[in-house]
């Protein structure tokens, strides 16, 4: 068995996430991919608002911290100045799919050559467990205490499906980090997204179904099961768009 | 002496931006400034720059945040309602110390208001505008030539202080045509030369972070001190203000921007009537020309002031603070896009000195 070493693209900062939170896994996977593709000294990360806000403390590269929802716009500005550099955003579901919906959709429509790492845990984690645009029907949160009722609180948004219907995005895949096999699949998807960006193919987004045990009120193993059984049932895994190798 | 060219205000501002080293524009259409993005949408590609028509004013200012933070010379332009939408981003840029230029060709407000010239965004521009304690370096040109000259130095100042520079114009200036002299092309700095820009070239210890988040109150306090120290430095070094005939004036007019220009036209008419009149016309609104007002207010020959503005007295508040009760001040104000003429100013002077 190979000895695990900390990716170079991770700093020594202590991760600020709760026990069982998937942010740690996702952050590590991105760092490993950046290492494997030799992207040290070539990358700018864009942090967003939410539990992802501190990602600039963890990724060992240049970073900009963006206003809530605006990471794809900030990334656009950076990429237009440095088209030869790798630019990625690291955003949660409240940031990307609610307040930042316009920015993510139009970055996709422009085919902006950036990579978006989208962490979907169906809840606002940083502010303490309020309903997110991605909260499942029936799911209880601190602002949907009786469970999300579509008649009162609307329906969950499916970002991969939404963006895949548009011309512009190059590669869109939904994955989950519920178990070892899926973590490997997630890493593969992240790697492919960055490879597409290196090749100049345009906009790529990886949606990662993730756990928030603290705000879901579950222990970590149950939270992993919730990803597998409930999240994945509502947000089907798979490749939603792939323009392939030629373009 | 270079040859003069006849240009519309908005287009002259856009060309001066390019000559001042601007290479990136992010914006959204709104009257009466749309000629700026229209012009730059082809011009920037001639100089190896880039242009994005953003999905919103909000996205546009955040693109400027990204580009400016990455060391590019970037700008956006808009008009009053659009500038309101950008305020969150401008506040972030102030805290993250991002150099960039924002142009506001002011129209009448509040709300959707009208598209005629106004100065009713004075407080928003000069007092900060978004949340938090911050200032912008605010230039208010009175002529197209002055606007050109200020655009030309705007990024130099923005990078010197790592601050957003704000150009406060109005619809009149944007639409007017005048013969102007254009300065020579200036090359932008290489982003790699800045020790703060996130160019992507840094890894590990030397990596750069552009950030406005300071969760620990002590760190947030220190960053606020840093910003305030910078604003004091700007107050010391960057005041630009024109004074005319204040040495023998009994009444001193004060106005900025296009209204300053109208006041200038009123001066010879009043002098012809035997009225000893002067003018204070600040070009920078932050930093404010407080010392100039103090000096003029202390002159024994100066009996009173008349503030002239296209807003309800927003500018006059700062004039009153600077004059500090030393002399009486009257106000000639127009709102809603109505512009006073030189004759209106003459009439008001005759009325107040009676």
Task: Report on this structure.
The complex is a heterodimer of chains A (247) and B (354). Chain A contains ten helices and nine strands. Chain A has 247 residues and is of the alpha/beta class. Chain A has one domain: 3-Layer(aba) Sandwich (Rossmann fold). A seven-stranded mixed β-sheet of chain A has the order 2-1-3-4-8-7-9, sandwiched between helices. Chain A has a two-stranded antiparallel ribbon with strand order 5-6. The radius of gyration of chain A is 17 Å and the shape is globular. Chain B folds into two domains: 4-237, Rossmann fold; 242-352, 3-Layer(aba) Sandwich (Rossmann fold). Chain B is α/β, with parallel strands linked by helices and 354 residues long. In chain B, the strands form three sheets. Chain B has a seven-stranded mixed β-sheet with strand order 3-2-4-5-7-6-13, sandwiched between helices. Chain B has a five-stranded mixed β-sheet with strand order 10-12-11-14-15, sandwiched between helices. The model of chain B has no long low-confidence stretch (mean pLDDT 97). Chain A binds chain B through residues 8-9, 40-44, 46, 53, 56, 60-67, 70, 73-82, 85-87, 102-103, 105-106, 110, and chain B through 23-24, 26, 50, 52, 54-56, 58-60, 62-72, 74, 88-89, 92, 96, 191, 198-204, 207-213.
């Amino acid at each position: 068995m190979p000895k695990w070493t900390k990716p170079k693209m991770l700093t020594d900062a202590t991760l600020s996430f709760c026990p069982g939170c998937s942010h740690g896994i996702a952050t590590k996977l991105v760092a490993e991919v950046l290492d494997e593709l030799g992207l040290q000294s070539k990358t700018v990360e864009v942090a967003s608002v939410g539990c992802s806000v501190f990602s600039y403390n963890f990724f060992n590269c240049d970073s900009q911290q963006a206003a809530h929802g605006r990471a794809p716009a900030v990334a656009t500005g950076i990429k237009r100045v440095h088209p030869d550099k790798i630019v990625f955003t690291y955003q949660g579901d409240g940031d990307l799919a609610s307040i930042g919906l316009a920015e993510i959709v139009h970055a996709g429509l422009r085919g902006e050559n950036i990579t978006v790492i989208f962490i979907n845990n169906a809840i606002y984690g940083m502010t303490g467990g309020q309903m997110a645009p991605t909260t499942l029907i029936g799911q209880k949160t601190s602002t949907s205490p009786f469970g999300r009722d579509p008649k009162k609180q609307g329906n969950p948004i499916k970002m991969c499906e939404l963006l895949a219907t548009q011309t512009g995005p190059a590669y869109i895949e939904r994955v989950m980090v519920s178990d070892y096999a899926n973590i490997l699949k997630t890493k593969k998807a992240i790697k492919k997204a960055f490879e597409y960006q290196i090749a100049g193919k345009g906009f790529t987004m990886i949606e990662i179904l993730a756990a928030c045990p603290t705000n879901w009120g579950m222990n970590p193993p149950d939270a992993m099961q919730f990803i597998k059984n409930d999240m994945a049932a509502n947000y089907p895994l798979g490749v939603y768009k792939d323009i392939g190798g030629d373009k | 002496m270079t040859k003069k060219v006849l240009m519309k205000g908005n287009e002259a501002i856009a060309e001066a931006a390019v000559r001042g080293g601007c290479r990136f524009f992010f914006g959204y259409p709104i009257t009466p400034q749309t000629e700026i993005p229209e012009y730059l949408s082809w011009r920037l590609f001639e100089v190896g720059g880039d242009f994005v028509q953003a999905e919103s004013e909000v996205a546009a200012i955040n693109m400027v945040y990204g580009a400016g933070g990455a060391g590019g010379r970037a700008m956006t332009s808009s008009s009053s309602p659009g500038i309101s939408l950008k305020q969150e981003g401008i506040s972030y840029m102030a805290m993250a110390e991002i150099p960039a230029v924002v142009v506001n060709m002011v129209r009448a407000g509040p709300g959707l208001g009208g598209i005629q010239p106004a100065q009713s965004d004075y407080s928003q521009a000069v007092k900060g505008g978004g949340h938090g304690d911050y200032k912008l370096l605010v230039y208010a040109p009175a002529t197209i030539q002055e606007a050109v000259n200020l655009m030309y130095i705007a990024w130099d100042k923005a990078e010197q202080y790592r601050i957003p520079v704000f150009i406060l114009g109005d619809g009149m200036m944007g639409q007017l045509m005048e013969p102007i002299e254009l300065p020579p092309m200036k090359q932008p700095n290489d982003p790699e030369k800045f020790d703060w820009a996130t160019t992507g070239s840094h890894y590990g210890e030397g990596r750069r972070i552009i950030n406005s988040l300071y969760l620990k109150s002590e760190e947030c306090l220190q960053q606020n001190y840093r910003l305030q120290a910078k604003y004091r430095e700007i107050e010391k070094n960057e005041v630009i203000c024109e004074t005319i005939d204040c040495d023998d004036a009994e009444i001193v007019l004060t106005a900025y921007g296009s209204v300053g220009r109208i006041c200038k036209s009123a001066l010879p008419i009043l002098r012809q009537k035997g009225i000893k009149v002067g003018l204070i016309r600040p070009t920078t609104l932050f930093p404010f020309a407080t010392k100039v007002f103090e000096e003029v207010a202390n002159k024994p020959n100066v009996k009173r002031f008349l503030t002239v503005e296209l807003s309800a007295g927003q500018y006059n508040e700062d004039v009153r603070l600077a004059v500090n009760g030393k002399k009486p001040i009257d106000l000639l104000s127009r709102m809603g896009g109505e512009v006073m003429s030189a004759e209106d100013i003459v009439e008001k002077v005759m009325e107040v000195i009676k």
